Amino acid sequence: MKSINCKGKLIDLTSPKVMGILNLTPDSFYDGGKYKSEKDILQQTEKMILEGATFIDVGAYSSRPGAIHISEEEELSRLLPVLKLILQNFPNLLISIDTFRSNVAKIAIETGACMINDISAGNLDDNMFKTIASLQVPYIIMHMKGNPKNMQTNVDYNNLINDIIYYFSKKINELRALNINDVIIDVGFGFSKTIDQNYELLANLNLFKSIELPILTGISRKSMLYEFLNTTSNEALNATSIANTIALQQGTNILRVHDVKESIQTIKILEKTNQN
């Protein structure tokens, strides 16, 4: 299944798409606290649209390792004014909401977002699957063990690839039973994974095509790149482009990124090469 329905618009994922990241958190690992004013938010959103993003992923809860936990009320107070602002200015924009809370998901979709990106695949909120079923929107499920606070202590696997495929199979069976159709998988780079495990996943991402669902890859400027190269997230754009190239060659359908222009260029060059 290589297309998803967003607000009645069929998005064909046979040609890879880019999801631009808009962080509304003060403590995100790369661009935390960068977009505070309405002007900053609208400028960054417009920049990503003009550079070719199909989706914008808006998150108000930082899920980096050891991030500070915030209440649902605080998440909504950060998220809703920005969501309304963006949709007032870009009413046709396809907005994904990065949340693991079913109530936040419900309110955001009712406000005009079109997709939910859940790092916990329903594990952190028992009502999430039922909520997605009632909303009937595309749903991104990510692999993570535990929660953002303790995930980096949960890195033991019998077999990394098999364990994650089994994890998704169970989740997908539950979602199918609720008639949820548009499901996208994300192996969760940097979540409950060591650096070596992240690279094992990147090298074997094509094995997840056996699940027969679109694959989203979120590897942009992550520590698996900059720590390995002994640099910083600010200096990890080149590394991101290389990792994204590998991910695309391995069958990724959506790249979730901070840098839209460079990701679009990566897709174009690969597609041109594959035509020949």
What is the compact description of this entry?
With 276 residues, this protein is of the alpha/beta class.
Characteristic key phrases:
alpha/beta; 276 residues; 8-stranded parallel sheet; TIM Barrel; globular
Number of helices: 9
**The CATH H-level homologous superfamily:** Dihydropteroate synthase-like
Biggest β-sheet: count, sense, barrel?
A: 8 strands, parallel
Give me the strand/helix succession.
EEEHEHEHEHEHEHEHHEH
Count structural domains: 1
Strand order of the largest sheet: 8-7-6-5-4-3-10-9
Strand content: 15-25%
Describe the structure.
By secondary structure, the protein is an alpha/beta fold. The chain has a single domain (3-275), classed as Dihydropteroate synthase-like (TIM Barrel). Helix content is 40%, strand content 16%. The chain contains nine helices and ten strands. It has helices at residues 38-51, 72-89, 102-111, 128-135, 160-177, 195-203, 223-226, 237-249, 260-275; strands at 3-6, 9-12, 17-23, 55-59, 94-98, 115-118, 139-142, 183-186, 216-217, 254-257. The strands form two sheets. An eight-stranded parallel β-sheet has the order 8-7-6-5-4-3-10-9. The protein has a two-stranded antiparallel ribbon with strand order 1-2. The model is unreliable at 28-32 (pLDDT under 50).
